Amino acid sequence: MLQKIFQTLEKLIPARWRWVFQHKGFKRYSANVSWLLFGQIFSAAVSFIVGIFVARQLGPASYGLLNYVISFITLFGFIASLGVYDIVKRELIGRNQVGTNKLLGTGWILCFIGSLLAIACLAITLFIIRQDSITSRLILLFSLIFIFQSFTVIDLFFQAQVRSSLSAMAQIGGTLVRSMGLIICLLVHWPLVYLVFAYLLGSVANQLLLIRYYHRYYGSWLGWQPEVRLAKKIISQSWPLILSSASLVIYARLDQILVRNMTGDMASGFYAVAVKLSEIWYFIPTLIVAALFPALVAARQSDIALYRQRLKRLIVFFLSLSVVLAAALSLLSRLIVTRLFGAEYLPAVPAMLVYNWTAVGFFMAVILNNYFIIETKTKLNFMVNGLAAAVNIGLNIILIRRYGIVGAAWATIGSYAVLLAVGYLSIKLSKKYVTTNAAVA
Predict the structure, then answer these.
(1) Which of 67, 194, 225, 327 fits a 20 to 30 Å CA distance from 162?
(2) Cα Rg of the chain (Å, integer)
(3) Which residues of 308-345 are buried (b: 16+ CB within 10 A; e: fewer)?
(4) SS3 75
């Protein structure tokens, strides 16, 4: 069914862009892409509709507080993952069953330890910055989601095995559970703390489904074999990714933290709507690159010319698509905000008109970060993202104070500009490296 949908979609694409669908590598992984897209589109659509209901029911101030809690938690996600996701996913490709069990067991243990570290660091941070008691309790409760997400290694395994249908079904199940929980809480007018429980319940459902599908098709997860030596190897490669992830989180979510602290809950609610609508397309590049990641790794190992050709074509496609999507959303911003969220959220429009164009930077950044991972240049990845994060912090502090939520949007664009400029320069300088490795291969 999904394959037929993909074939229909191909006919709707202009002839000059059909190479994306006709490419051998893409055809090979089209079913995987189809399932990833289906799961993400379904989950994103349900979450978006429920999110509108949540925003309308709570109002700008309470909605701003809820998004502040979510953004605050997100800042510590890089600690919970310990930067091992991309390393584990890369290493899972081509592994035998024994090697897979060791890798999954080691990855899970590292993520579980990371989740405990994240919660501890979050608690210490709250003690230092002294949030109000209600906000602190909500944040600490929400932080339990880190523990539940440690089984995400199974999702990585399914992607590496080109079995994204299983990941998609687990994601859809978790989304439905979370959405139903949120709707029930709002209909009976329960306080915000119960909405946090709904988010946690959705995460638990997602992880339990991943475990169930793994047990059904591959055996019990109790057969995983953590290995200290392998853990040390993964950490030695992933620590730059931990810092890089921290940088990515900073310029992706720090603006929402600063907006609330510098301008209040009301402005935070307006900015949350602007960001939510502008980032509606963000799942597209992430999913396409995730689905094609095995093909890119395989090409890098066997045919460097094909590998570079795929990267260039992907860049052209993403750049063109992001510009079109950002322009379309900008033209419809006022209408969308009014129709979906109501007139009380119209102050979000000026920030949205600016923030829409971060899509271009995000689409390109997805390719850039995966390029660094494939090339095992994790330290360089950290340096590039670290510089962009530093710029983001400085711009946010200056521009939010002066221009409010519009300034926060411009700060995000500025950080993406720095990220891409420095990243592109580093790639140009590494051409000799790629050519040399091509000769060796």
Answers:
(1) 225
(2) 21
(3) bebbeebeebbeebbeebbeebbeebeebbeebbeebb
(4) coil
Contacts of residue 13, defined as CB under 8 A and 6 or more positions apart, other chains included, come to: 20, 21
Q: Tell me if 8 is assigned to some domain.
A: no
CB-CB contact of 342 with 397 (8 Å): no
Q: What is the pLDDT of residues 121-161, one digit of tens each?
A: 999 999 888 778 889 999 999 999 999 888 888 888 887 77
Residue owning tokens 């953590």: 226
Rounded CA-CA distance 184/415 in Å is 39
- Per the document, the length of the chain is 441
Q: Which residues of 200-215 are buried (b: 16+ CB within 10 A; e: fewer)?
A: bbbbbbbbbbbeebbe
In a domain, 245, yes or no: yes
Enumerate residues 6+ apart whose C-beta is below 8 A from 63.
54, 55, 269, 272, 273
Which residues, 6 or more positions from 402, have their beta carbon under 8 angstroms from its beta carbon?
Answer: none
Distance of alpha carbon 407 from alpha carbon 327, whole angstroms: 20
Specify the 3-state DSSP secondary structure of 85. helix
User: Residue 85: what residue type?
Assistant: Y
d(CA 211, CA 153): 10
Residue-range definition of the domain harbouring residue 156: 16-440
Asked if 288 and 25 touch (Cβ cutoff 8 Å), the reply is no
Cα–Cα distance for residue pair 109/115, rounded to 1 Å = 10
**CA 384 to CA 264: how far, in whole Å?**
32
CA distances from 421 to 417, 418, 426 (A): 6, 5, 9
Angle 192-218/164-187 helices, nearest 10 degrees?
160
pTM of the model: 0.76
Phi-psi region of 227 (alpha: psi -120 to 50; beta: other; left: phi over 0): beta
Q: Is 7 a member of any domain?
A: no
**156/81 Cα distance (integer angstroms):** 12
Residue 401 lies in a domain: yes
Tell me the DSSP string of 92-131.
HTT--HHHHHHHHHHHHHHHHHHHHHHHHHHHHHHHHHT-
Q: Give CA 406 to chain center in angstroms.
A: 23
pLDDT in tens, 4-63: 555 555 555 555 555 455 555 455 555 666 776 788 788 888 998 999 999 999 999 999
